[in-house]
Amino acid sequence: MPELSQQFMAILIQLSIALLAITVSAISHYRILQYLTKFIARLRNGARGLIVLFCGITASQLLAALWFTFAFKVSIAMGLGNVNGGSLNQFIELFYFSLINLTTLGLGQIEATSHLRFLAGIEAMTGFLLVSCSASVLIKYMKH
């Protein structure tokens, strides 16, 4: 019974870390999209605004992947799991893994173990939502 209690506590800790990563990613993404929308309104419609939007959205997605990279790093430091398959610097591997999850590509060179699988799945859901928000801003811009 104590083993089950420890596993449950580890899952709760992992989900708390994931919730923090989701919150920080969503807030930063929202703020960046908000700033981009105001900035491109001054540019008027055209290719320059579209390029600014694409670059800004890409930067925002990279920042979200970075937030989740830190979440993976904290989770590994707390003994909640690890990643298998990486051979480079751990931070670079975790950032790459985070990008793959955030974009929901799911390439299999690196895989999460133990409770890190929860964080990886939650990151994929978050990435899908962030891409959807970004797409709505792009569509709105292109309609005008």
* Strand and helix order: HHEHEH
Please outline the major beta sheet: 2 strands, antiparallel
The name CATH uses for the topology is Helix Hairpins
Low-pLDDT segments: none
Radius of gyration: 17 Å
Number of domains: 1
Q: What overall geometry do the principal axes of the alpha carbons give?
A: elongated
Share of helix, binned: over 70%
Cα distance, first to last residue?
61 Å
Q: Which architecture does the CATH hierarchy give at level 2? A: Orthogonal Bundle
Number of contiguous helices: 4
CATH level 1 class label:
Mainly Alpha
Beta-strand percent range? under 5%
Q: What structural category do the secondary elements indicate? A: mainly alpha
Strand order, sheet with most strands: 1-2
Total count of strands: 2
Overall pLDDT metric: 91
What do you see in this structure?
- The protein is mainly alpha-helical.
- It has one domain (2-143): Helix Hairpins.
- The chain is built from four helices and two strands, in the order ααβαβα.
- The protein has a two-stranded antiparallel sheet.
- α1 runs antiparallel to α2, α2 (47-77) packs antiparallel against α4 and α3 (90-102) packs across α4.
- The longest helix is centred in the first third of the chain and has 42 residues, at 2-43.
- The N and C termini lie far apart (61 Å).
- The model has no long low-confidence stretch (mean pLDDT 91).
